[in-house]
Amino acid sequence: MSAFTWVIIAVTCGIVEVLTLGFWFIWLSISAFLIAICVKIGLISALNNQLLLFACFTLLLLVFTRPIVMKFVKHKDHVSNVQALIGQHGQVIKTITKLEFGQVKLNGEIWTAASEEEIDVQTKVSVIGIDGVKLIVKKLSENDIHSEGD
Predict the structure, then answer these.
(1) Superfamily for 81-149?
(2) Cβ of 43: how many Cβ atoms within 10 Å?
(3) How far apart are CA 29 and CA 20, in angstroms?
(4) Torsion angles phi and psi, residue 123, rounded to 5
(5) 3-state secondary structure the chain
(6) How many CA atoms lie within 13 A of 83 on its CB side?
(7) For residue 30, is pLDDT > 90?
(8) I want to staple 32 with a disulfide (CB 3.0 to 4.6 A). Which of 8, 9, 94, 126 is the partner?
(9) Contact 113, 135 (CB under 8 A)
(10) Percentage of residues of the chain with pLDDT beyond 90
(11) pLDDT digits over 32-74, tens only?
């Protein structure tokens, strides 16, 4: 292939990278540009050598540079709506023990709940965490119950 063909491949991969932002096609694009340079200055001419070198460049770039680049790219962690339940108060409607899940009514919805302590029915609780689809709760102290009414 000609150097121009490799430049077209590089630009196409670059465009795909801009559209996807996955940091996969950028390495293909860089490798294609490197092959275009090698072809232009006459280092390689046979197609099978070009393809082999392209594959080697791509593999090396993926293995050695992608992990470094990914450390510097900020990933936005999307907090789920369930995380908003932490800190809210509910009421136990099925006894919770250390060995058995119970149920808590929170914002009109019934949730499976777990706790490190036994909590009886009608007890007010606070959500302290989420484990999968289960709420992790603790009993509200007397101070919390009285301040909730204020």
Answers:
(1) Nucleic acid-binding proteins (2.40.50.140)
(2) 12
(3) 14
(4) -80, 135
(5) CCHHHHHHHHHHHHHHHHHHCCCCHHHHHHHHHHHHHHHHCCCCCCHHHHHHHHHHHHHHHHHHCHHHHHHHCCCCCCCCHHHHHCCCEEEEEECECCCCCEEEEECCEEEEEECCCCECCCCEEEEEEEECCEEEEEECCHHHHHHHHC
(6) 4
(7) yes
(8) 9
(9) yes
(10) 68
(11) 999 999 999 999 999 999 999 999 999 999 999 888 888 887 6
Residues, the chain: 150
d(CA 58, CA 136): 47
Alpha carbons 12 and 18: distance in angstroms, whole number: 10
- Cβ–Cβ < 8 Å for 97, 116: no
pTM, full prediction: 0.51
